[in-house]
Amino acid sequence: MLTLDRTNWKLGRAEINLLVLGVSYRGLSLPLFWSALPKAGNSNTAERVELLARLRETFPVQPLAYLLADREFVGRAWVEALREQQIPFRLRLKANARIRRSRSGEEAPLLRAFQDLQVHEQRVLRKPRWLWGQPLYLSAKRLEDGEWLLIASEAYTAHALQESAERWTIETLFAALKGHGFHLEDTHLTKPERLENLLGLLALTSTWALHAGLWAHEQQPIREKKTLQRPQFSVFRDGLDLLQRLVAQRETFGAQFLRLLGFLLDGQPLELHPMMVCEMRLVWP
Hints:
Elements: E1 2-11, E2 14-25, E3 28-36, H1 45-58, E4 67-69, H2 76-84, E5 89-92, E6 98-99, E7 108-109, E8 122-124, E9 129-131, E10 134-142, E11 148-153, H3 160-164, H4 168-177, H5 192-219, E12 224-225, E13 230-231, H6 235-247, H7 253-266, H8 274-283
Parallel strand pairs: 1-4, 4-5
Antiparallel strand pairs: 1-2, 2-3, 5-11, 6-7, 8-10, 9-10, 10-11, 12-13
Helix pairs in contact: 5-6, 5-7
């Protein structure tokens, strides 16, 4: 599953605006391609298509489940681009969208097809509705806060609402890149090329930390908060803390670093011969 979203912040007068295409994996979206946009505000279709082109160039025959994106990533040109590249999608819609029952039919509010739903109820329309000149399949769920979860897909699926929940993995990624992990904002970098280079390093480290966290969770599952019935912290956070603890062991740094490389190779720490560990202690004063 692909995820597409932006994260942005302001540093003085500089607007930092990153557009990221990732792949959802074990609760975290891992960055594949990204672009530091030279502007504030929403991305446009050309900027998104450029990331998709890089994806297709790098993985020309890789099958794709679908792309998940939030309400910013909508519109005629965007949907046409996804269909042209044969990329299935689950796009969240704005509640004020207007649709047609047929290509030449009368336009009506999207919510009219779902207005009788109660909180937590959902509905999937079996026949397509026309939106942005395209026949799309619509699903809806009324949420507790008065909001709507409205999803458009290129083909009929009874599970679009559940599948769209994976979009939050990219929000988890942005939290990991910023205040809950690497504190990317604190670097004070503003030049696009430097930000893109640093994000490449963080993409690798995020994968490293996630694999380490998955291994640690297998050894000792993360405890749950009793009141919320969810883990005290994420697998990514657990893995990042593990990497930091091992690197901090200065007297065995060489051996620990080799063990850590194993998480990148196959998700397991490398097993070292005891003699190798002793020799490494000698070269690290």
